[in-house]
């Protein structure tokens, strides 16, 4: 059985979520509950779960406050939150799972399937999450990327470009390394636009600081610092021209 703890300051929310687990994740055993940050911290000192379901907004603080007081995280955390655009973006940077209230059964099933497939704890992801939350007035410096066998924490400044591959995205780095990630290019466009990335084509997102030149003939294409030629779509051409003028 997967041992779980639920931390939420609303008792009825805990009751409802336990019923959801009984139906949609019957291999999960709830071994403890807490109604806030203080009680949650005390509970986690004495009981170590496999997974923690953690509410974000609670009366005595936030789920992020609880993370700050934990000396080490040896379990998986899935956050449960009402719609909070800033927090959700931070989760996406750190590749950390979250569930929106009210919890959708399909999302719960997906989150638990991912947990069963990879039960390795990644402390660095939670540090990245904290960085994202505390420095939300400036672009993130790092990004967590899921490949088939591990999670890579990469420096955004080392990403040369991203290329769509159906429902996957292939990352190209300045050191010529490549990484295939199981998320769409659109998701990374949303995350990386504030860090100087620009969607120049349906299949291509580029780091503008590595653009060497723009060739107008033959439909138009960019040449990157490493010599890669990236097509510019006809629809995007006016936007690309404006972007280049501002560099």
- Please report the total strand number as a whole number: 17
Remind me, CATH topology of the largest domain? Rossmann fold
| CATH-level-4 superfamily name of the largest domain | Response regulator
Q: How much helix, percentage-wise, in residues?
A: 25-40%
Mean pLDDT: 90
CATH architecture of the largest domain: 3-Layer(aba) Sandwich
Number of helices: 8
Q: Would you tell me the structural class of the helices and strands?
A: alpha/beta
Task: Sum up the overall morphology in one term.
Answer: elongated
Unreliable spans are none
Distance between the termini: 55 Å
Main β sheet profile: 5 strands, parallel
Beta-strand content estimate = 25-35%
Write the layout of secondary structure elements.
Elements: E1 2-7, H1 11-24, E2 28-34, H2 37-46, E3 51-55, E4 57-58, E5 61-62, H3 63-69, E6 76-81, H4 85-94, E7 98-100, H5 105-117, H6 123-134, E8 142-146, E9 151-155, E10 159-165, E11 168-173, E12 178-181, H7 185-192, E13 197-201, E14 204-207, E15 211-215, E16 221-224, E17 229-231, H8 237-246
List keywords for this structure.
single chain; 247 residues; alpha/beta; Rossmann fold; OB fold (Dihydrolipoamide Acetyltransferase, E2P); 2 domains; 5-stranded parallel sheet; 5-stranded antiparallel sheet
């Amino acid at each position: 059985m997967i041992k779980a703890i639920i931390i939420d300051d609303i008792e009825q929310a805990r009751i409802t979520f336990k019923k959801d687990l009984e139906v949609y994740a019957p291999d999960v055993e709830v071994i403890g509950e807490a109604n806030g940050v203080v009680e949650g911290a005390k509970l986690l000192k004495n009981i170590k779960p496999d997974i923690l379901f953690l509410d974000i907004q609670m009366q005595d603080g936030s789920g992020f406050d609880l993370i700050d007081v934990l000396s080490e995280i040896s379990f998986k955390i899935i956050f449960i939150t009402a719609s909070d655009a800033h927090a959700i973006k931070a989760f996406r940077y750190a590749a950390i799972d979250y569930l929106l209230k009210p919890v959708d059964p399909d999302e719960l099933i997906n989150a638990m399937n991912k947990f069963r497939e990879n039960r390795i704890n990644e402390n660095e992801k939670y540090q990245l999450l904290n960085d994202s939350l505390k420095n939300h007035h400036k672009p993130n410096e790092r990004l967590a990327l899921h490949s088939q066998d591990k999670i890579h924490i990469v420096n955004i400044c080392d990403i040369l470009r991203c290329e769509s591959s159906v429902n996957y995205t292939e990352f190209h780095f300045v050191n010529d390394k490549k990484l295939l990630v199981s998320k769409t290019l659109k998701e990374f466009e949303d995350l990386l636009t504030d860090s100087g990335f620009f969607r120049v084509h349906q299949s291509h997102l580029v780091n503008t600081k590595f653009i060497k030149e723009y060739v107008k003939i033959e439909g138009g294409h960019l040449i990157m610092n490493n010599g890669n030629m990236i097509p510019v779509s006809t629809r995007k051409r006016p936007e690309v021209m404006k972007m280049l003028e501002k560099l």
